[in-house]
Amino acid sequence: MTVSRRGLIAATGASLIASQADARQKAKAGAKPLFQASWESFEANYKTPAWFQDAKLGIWAHWGPQCVPEYGDWYGRQMYQQGNPYYDHHVATYGHPSEFGFMDFLPKWKVDGWDPQRLMGLYKKAGAKYFVSMANHHDNFDNFNSRYHRWNSTKIGPMRDIVGEWAKATREAGIRFGVSNHSAHAWHWWQTAYGYDAEGPKRGVRYDAFTRHRGDGKGKWWDGLDPQELYTGPHGDMVPPDGITSIKDMNAFNDSHSGQWLETPPPGEDWYAKQWLLRQNDLVEQYHPDFVFMDNYVMPLGQAGLDAVAHFYNANRLWNGSLEAVVTTNKLDDQQARGLTNNVERGFSDRLRPLPWQTCTCIGQWHYDRRIYEQNGYKTAKEVVQRLIDTVSKNGTLLLSIPVRSNGEIDDKEEKVLADMAAWMAVNGDAVFGTRPWDIYGEGPTRFVEGMQNEQLAKGFTHEDIRFTTKSGVLYALPTEWPNAPFVTITAMAEGSPQRKGQVERVELLGYGQPLRFELGMDGLTVKLPDARPAFTPVLKIMGKGLVS
User: Fold this and answer.
1) Any alpha helices (H) in 406-539, and if so which ranges?
2) What letter does residue 72 receive in the DSSP assignment?
3) Which tens digit of pLDDT belongs to each residue from 43-76?
4) Topology of domain 6-345, CATH
């Protein structure tokens, strides 16, 4: 199948020139750009802003048209993979993907239950100091008023500027605003939509991305739109060739070709990176975020990614008068992490890191999955808090996704998680927000393996696991469970330990309001606990000269 991109390439080139001209004009009006589009420049000039070091918790709305079926993450790709449960659900519920493709979900995405101001109030009470709106996902649909991509939420489906409304609600709540961009992977992610069934009554029938083009939508809801701009077009040997006759072989082909996590543009198609850069720059220019999440390993699309980061850093300095920008990507080495902020997706750190970092996770699936609700499968507030205090003790920040339903609401069980988080934060938030690590992150038997996508392998915390934070000369000890005994012993302060320094003058249990009895002995600092339990995990406030360097 051949798709001409001559017009798209020409338009992209002209738009990029115009965008660069705008950037040059802004540079003339403001300060000389500090950042060049290179790792060397980022590493030499970047410093993590204080707001991010203080924030500790962000909440993320991982919300887009893939939430319409409410069947979980990566629905758009997996609905085109015969033998996959997503494909089976799609065929049974909506029809064969040659007839009802992903694009047919777009007009069904109605957000009549969405109240961003109300949701932001819940997020803020739960402790969020920054909020992240998903600007687009691998499905290549922009959730904002994009000047360079007609497949967006202001023209199709919601007919609303999702990112813009989130931004307004976030700033009204007095917290920092961020965006996430996942679209660099759309070109290979969508190649399953150009495939076909390898077996069964529709064997060999190509799916909708292969058959729909500009002009085919005359008289339909997508009249004037080109589906190839959404699905990105077929890309060489990524498209399943004719003649595959088994589901096993088709899955093997997709896994070994388009299923690879590629950070490069499609070979020989420079237009793709240029178009991505236009959309990314447009996103930050319109909504002035202080935080950008890029769903990539190190950097998306080569030089285009470097250009995007430099543009954002320089623009953010102009907007704010100083650099308030944070960009997170995955798998940065120690040198790269001096110029961007390292993210660990659904994973842990095994150590206290010298540079600020972030981990991101979700209480369920990234995109809303009603099955998790029905099976009571969400993380509890206590599990979230345990994850948070472990992360903060290691100089990190947690970005937590609360999946949003198709109509813009969150469900009652998600609200319960947020309410329980809010109750804990009301008592213990001082031990989290605005803190810095102690000499060590903690003590106890639980150890984590460093890396992404491994949280399902982690063992649960125990009452012996204690994490530490500091603020204003105060040491906080945060046990991850209430101890089985009426006392807790902090062995890090045992006789002969490097952490046994200074004087312990007073110990309090946050939320209790009275000093506690304690003894500094050979085994460490032992604190007598009251019967009262102000929150589902305790926090001890330890005061005295010289405890914190």
Assistant:
1) 412-428
2) -
3) 999 999 999 999 999 999 999 999 999 999 999 9
4) TIM Barrel (3.20.20)
